[in-house]
């Protein structure tokens, strides 16, 4: 065994250069975990830092020969543990493959390496008058990680999620071949859609070494309406109506009163909501609109404000640019606020948006029945509910999560809208999902990764 | 062998009722082919007409036991032969599974059985103020067929294709299990995306028995600008600029002069283009816009007209509603016009839209080099080029198609944007595609269909 490890280390050094193979104490703490609240940090056997697809392919061939598990890592901002290595693993860190290879303004496409962060891509697209509209809270996240977990975020109600913006990939198969899928076009009917299968597969099917991403024209103007509501049920009922109005909101978030209090307190942010309204408000809707023409934007803001009042809002506040930006930033950091407040786990059930009122009632029932605090916010337009669960007892917490997931699934939903399954939600996934689908996914995994070296233990056992 | 056939027939009658199993001469001519120009009609051993997923599952279990191939059929309007049965096959016709099960206005979702046609769905969504925006030319096409081939059409430049509107499926696996994938939400990160894998798989992975489709708010107003251009290259260069302007066209089609002549002649349609302009025009762009507010629509029409003039249009014509509708209908029927004119094959290469000028030059070179007439039109905004090939000699025709596909692929494209591969383009697909990807697709096929009963010979050998 020790021989295999030594041999593997030597082989890795030959592939990427000795400087880019880390072992033992040279492996920094950052490499041992993602942002999941519930996982133990684990030091892998090796960290390798390849600089191109050929090196990744050689690493995978070596791993297949030696039967060594391989875990891919971007920025480590994931929330389900799919970038958490096992002790015997090779952790492939894409930190050196971090180039924006091209911003193609004719085809509205960006070509990026997996280590590029959302913040870096934003800089490049801004300069070209375009935008990559997928907007998960954490802008230090890498595009490779976003592809792996099919990251979502606040703008999905208008633009969709990572999956809808990945037009093509370069990927390395577990058997060491480099393939290219899709391309700089939005459609094809030419064989099975390998691109969409790899997106969201959490590093279990292939390692992505390049992504072709769809960009959108960047709109010049944005405006934000904040509407306090007397209760969460009224907010939930308002959501389908706002989407159905055809105004096409860029963002449609709900924030419950406890979460709003926490995130504005943490951000030291005053929104100008008078005391009597704040006292009466149990939940808030945040609606952001965008348009190239300020006149159209003003008309749309007015239409939304009128509609929200009809739908039971206590009041409407059109936030100025600075307040709006701060509120959205504070909302982005809701996870860290929850973490700081001592949350024991977070989940992101997704369900039909019409089922939100019933789900919120169910969540309250589950929380009270288990003497657990469950608070949250979420992408209301997508039916994607982010909940922070405060419960120290692991058995009670498991039961609470199980009931929260099962209730969401009974209402037609799924366990995760954008965080993924990873190690951390796998037990629930395997318990709750149709065994025929699990069996089919195992066979697909086998078709991609016959020796089972890619992120074993993630998603499936 | 005869015994197995008799036994299969008896078994099928037990499943769906004797009235819904057809054999021999009782099998109408329609069942023997789709609309592919190049395939020989073939009578299958059986046509069965199931009425629910359980019957489909029982048919597949019986087929697996007896090793009988199974081909799914919607309306038979496909263009690649993927609904063409083999002589020993069971053809599963979804004509009785033709109910629109629900129009869910809260979630903007339609739930349909596979035999529902686009025309029927349009009626239901119109009544609800919503629209299923995918718009392949043929409105008698079934949704099941659309899902199987990932159908596209003229509105893809704004709304995307079938793939982007299928949120979930009920599907029967080759082993007889009924699974449900996805749901009434636009995003999930909960295991491999089985929905997207089944979409576009041409009946080779599973039989779809229900689809959850995403709807959009229906816009109240549309307007159409027709712009003649001096040549195809100028049209091609204009396309990325129109898309990049951010005006968000609903339709952005190019039509070459020969095709425009043919489709307007066939439709007996006068567009009011003066003789001297028509004589100078080698190609046309058709730009359709939509908006709920007529004022905004008028402004956008003016902006597009100005832009087209800057980009080299000889003139701009804003078509009235009736002329626009007739032109779009005539364009939809371009396939039948080409067929009527004696076209020997049609193809629909897709490529990056910026590569259109180079591709058009290449097409001309290939056509002239092989003394073949190649004319066309297409979804310019998507880079999806529809070409009619007039060449009687099958060997020359094969060479022409091979060169057209290979040129498209060298420019970063793929063989088919929306028609699919089927039987008819398979030889080119297997010759031109990366063997590593073909091998991977075969393993995926094996994971879904271990006994190889689902549409054998389609897509892969």
Topology (SSEs and partners):
2 copies of one chain form a homodimer.
Chain A: H1 2-16, E1 21-22, E2 46-48, H2 53-66, E3 70-73, E4 90-93, E5 100-104, E6 109-112, H3 118-127, E7 130-131, H4 143-149, H5 156-159, E8 166-173, E9 178-182, H6 194-198, E10 206-214, E11 216-217, E12 221-229, H7 232-244, E13 251-256, H8 257-267, H9 275-280, E14 283-291, H10 294-310, E15 317-319, H11 321-332, H12 334-340, E16 345-347, H13 356-369, E17 373-379, E18 384-390, H14 394-410, H15 426-432, H16 435-448
Parallel strand pairs in A: 2-4, 3-4
Antiparallel strand pairs in A: 1-2, 5-6, 6-10, 7-11, 8-9, 8-10, 12-14, 12-15, 13-14, 13-17, 16-18, 17-18
Give a verbal description of the structure:
The structure is a homodimer of 461-residue chains. By secondary structure, chain A is an alpha+beta fold. Chain A folds into four domains: 2-93, 2-Layer Sandwich (Uridine Diphospho-n-acetylenolpyruvylglucosamine Reductase, domain 2), CATH 3.30.43.10; 100-217, Uridine Diphospho-n-acetylenolpyruvylglucosamine Reductase, domain 3; 221-335, 2-Layer Sandwich (Alpha-Beta Plaits), CATH 3.30.70.2190; 342-436, 2-Layer Sandwich (Alpha-Beta Plaits). Chain A has 16 helices and 18 strands. Chain A has helices at 2-16, 53-66, 118-127, 143-149, 156-159, 194-198, 232-244, 257-267, 275-280, 294-310, 321-332, 334-340, 356-369, 394-410, 426-432, 435-448; strands spanning 21-22, 46-48, 70-73, 90-93, 100-104, 109-112, 130-131, 166-173, 178-182, 206-214, 216-217, 221-229, 251-256, 283-291, 317-319, 345-347, 373-379, 384-390. In chain A, a hairpin with a 4-residue loop joins strand 5 and strand 6 (109-112). The longest helix of chain A has 17 residues, at 294-310. Chain A is globular. Chain A starts with a helix and ends in a 13-residue tail after the last helix. The model of chain A has no long low-confidence stretch (mean pLDDT 95). Chains A and B meet through strand 9, helix 6, helix 7 and helix 16 of A and strand 9, helix 6, helix 7 and helix 16 of B.
